[in-house]
Specification:
The protein is mostly helical. The protein has one domain. The chain is built from 14 helices and no strands. The relative contact order is 0.23. About 3% of the residues have low confidence.
């Protein structure tokens, strides 16, 4: 495959992956209106485990269950499970586009956490991009209006945990993808079990299938995005992750009748601009292919 064809294939895989993430988010928002967050996490994770098990056996069960740096692995799993739980909790009350806009601020949090926890030096241009991203979050939250609510703050906390998960992923670059995904899925499963006492609604056969499909779609999205980053440089494919906003707007209006406020649209534009600036600066600083955790590609 030529470099051009590989890049085109990578872009196609990223677009498909982001569409699948969007469908996952729509299904999650639809189902969480009836079922508890714990149920969603439990049944989604069980379905995802069925999908990932063949890859675990191929890699080796012992190698998967005994990863290097188990403490950091556990911390990443904690961040990941908390982030997914907060996402489903946030979209219970927020329009889909609002929640996804706030989640796309994660790369901004990554820059700050990298400076504080990893000792990375951040130049003035990156700090300006961070300021632009936070301006976008502030505009989206509309502090002077009714949109600054507990669900909005939950979404901010979720985007922070998503960034923390990516920072942990940076330190685990040598860990196979199968191991990372398997432990991430197990963590969500345990989180779902822990949250079950807070409520249970017996699902119909149809909804059980939808809850299982939720995990399969999410797993497919992760596979597409990961494959995309192996086919082409992150600087080529990652900008297409911002099509998530477009899908969130389309599905939010078509499925739920939601339409974002002008403040949310302006905030989304600022956040996307900040993310693209950070990506360009990252490419200039290190023109080698970046890893998924360094870019913030993907979604809950």
């Amino acid at each position: 495959m030529t470099a051009r064809n590989a890049s085109l294939a990578g872009i196609a895989m990223m677009l498909i992956g982001i569409l699948l993430f969007s469908l996952n988010d729509v299904m999650g928002k639809w189902l969480v209106a009836t079922y508890t967050v714990g149920q969603l996490l439990l049944l989604r994770s069980l379905a995802a485990l069925v999908v990932i098990l063949p890859f675990v056996f191929k890699q080796g069960v012992q190698r998967t269950l005994r990863p290097e740096r188990p403490g950091l692995q556990a911390l990443r799993v904690l961040f990941s499970s908390g982030e997914v739980a907060l996402f489903y909790l946030a979209v219970t009350y927020l329009p889909l586009a609002d929640a996804m806009t706030i989640w796309l601020a994660a790369p901004v949090w990554v820059v700050i956490l990298a400076a504080l926890l990893l000792g990375e030096r951040i130049d003035g241009r990156r700090w300006l991009a961070v300021a632009l991203g936070f301006a976008g979050v502030a505009v989206s939250l509309n502090p002077s209006g009714a949109s600054l609510s507990m669900p909005a703050l939950i979404a901010v906390a979720g985007s922070f945990l998503f960034a923390a998960m990516m920072i942990a992923g940076r330190r685990l670059r040598g860990t196979p993808d199968v191991t990372l995904v398997a432990w991430q899925t197990l963590g969500a499963l345990l989180m779902g079990i822990a949250l079950l006492p807070f409520g249970w609604v017996t699902p119909s056969l149809k909804d059980t299938a939808l809850l299982a499909l939720l995990g399969i779609v999410a797993m497919g999205a992760h596979i597409c995005v990961t494959r995309s980053l192996k086919l082409a440089e992150a600087s080529v494919v990652v900008p297409y992750q911002y099509t998530l906003i477009i899908w969130a707007l389309v599905f939010g209006w078509f499925v739920f009748g939601d339409w974002p406020t002008p403040a949310m649209l302006c905030g989304a534009a600022l956040i996307v601009a900040a993310g693209l600036v950070l990506l360009i600066l990252e490419r200039k600083a290190a023109p080698t292919p970046a890893v998924l955790e360094a870019t913030g590609a993907g979604a809950p």
